[in-house]
Specification:
375 residues, mainly alpha, two-stranded parallel sheet, two-stranded antiparallel ribbon, 17 helices, globular, membrane, transmembrane helix, transmembrane
Amino acid sequence: MYELRKINVYIYYFLHYIYVLYRMESKEQRIYNKIYNIKKLKDYVSLILNDIYRLLQDLGYSDDIISSMLHKDRIDSAGQVCEKDIIKIIKGGNIREQLTAIYMFIEKNCFVIINLIYNKKMAQKLTYINQNRLKYIKDGLKKLTGIKEDSILNEILSGCSDKDACVLCNVVTTPANGICLLSRIVGFPFGGISNLRALRPNEDKINYIIKIKDIKPELSTREIEFMKLSVNAVKVPWETGQMLWVINPGHFLVSIADKYNNSLISGPSGGTDMIIQACLLFSRFDLELSTLAGIAWCTNCPDHSAYECLISAMPYGLDYRLDIEDEIYVDKLISKHKDTRRSSYNLPFFSSSKVMSSVGGKAKKNKTKKSKNNK
């Protein structure tokens, strides 16, 4: 009798796992399909990337250097293109390529933000920069270092204003180039990330390969060239969060997610966090659009669930709650920002010689339509 009961328990958990996996895959794909082609979102992503390009130009970097700053030579990472094509995607890449470049700006080039804090007079001349954000980061650095005087802080920052550096962030990452983003400053009681997830066994990864026919938007010729895909290729070499990680079913967050019809793939989304960090640097920042951008970047593969992306946006003021189903909340954001009419954003290709009007402070307000996005 005991053995039979034990077998029934195993069967229950196995069927529950299959159900959750099916629900997760179909749900994340469904959410992504609603988001990725929203014109207002695509325009916003394009404008943020152009802001980054304009900033790097204003700081004196050539196109060749900028291309290297926004490039990552890894075919297992979605949205990557050849270094020679970076400027092309700034001018007109698909949303996956452009979001990847925005992410790379934060992952590889934290020293640019330190440079702006260290050179206050220069930063103040850049009217498209969110000066309040620079002050927030500077105050955070003072808190971390225990230093109150600007002169002493600047002395410390001078050593990392043109090379490896650290900036405030809610995630921790240690890429090969040594840059470290600091660090779990928010108070979510998730415990160590190692308690929430573990590496997926290699033999199980084949079940999570990404087929070319399922990728939206379709792969660009730039992405195909970078990955060296043949005309007969059926899959891409991307290593996704779902492929790399397995969630610990005993973690308390799992029961919370299940209760409210949410899913976990690899834990709170560092990618969403870093995209929001990049967008926050500019005065056009919009929290809801930045969150949708993070969801769009993370759910196609998927690397994360929409639930995990929303969790990562909460420390920045997003009014999401863990007891709300992610798709219901995302649908509300979509209904607010999806507009079949012509977008209110203009999309010129910015260079340092063109002045772009922008509003300082925490976020840019739409001139033609009042928004309550700035939470």
